[in-house]
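Pilot study result, target chain (212 residues):
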Amino acid sequence: SDDRHPSGVGHVYAIEASSGAVRWKARIGRGSMTDVVRLDTRLYAVTLDGELVALDLADGKQVWSARGGPPLEGDFLNVAATPAIYSDRIFFAGADGVVRALSTTSGAPVWKSEVGSPVWTALVVLSDALCFGTRDGRLLRLDHGTGKHLVELRLGQVPFGPLVAADDLLFTLAGEQDLRVLNAVQASLGSSRWTRRAERGWSSSGPYLWKG
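Predicted structure:
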């Protein structure tokens, strides 16, 4: 939850699946609008202020936190900055245009990479690369071991929300004037495979996969 409104609260909740009872709730700054990701006994979320928080799965207590750079715009809300995990590293990014890799155990920095534009999508790990979209209309692949830039593809639209991978394709919604456009691009970012426009745009928060 998040506290953008006067009655809002900023917590991560753990709820019993069988009964709906709240097992615990943990306050994390102004709250979060990203997905919560899990690795073993820890949960990770990015707050509206661009802080990555690690919580203990059993009781919700904060294990560590790491702050990203300040937003370039005062009213920016980090709504799409769901982090990604690979092995013992967690990756997150935000409005300062910097992607960071941290140790999942301690939060210690491993590398950071400047990409020149606010990151506007969730991060996703594909084989040897970390993929995401930026506000200036690019999809990028970075080496997730070093942060080195590998390749980029210019969409001509602004990607946002989650990126969804399937086989050799990567699916993303993007903004084009007042419409949302669904794009399928090669996971290598070599080229765009196809684009689908709806007459009045798509209302889904992201693409979903089902039986091909």
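One observation from the pilot: The mean pLDDT is 89. A full batch analysis is planned for the follow-on phase.
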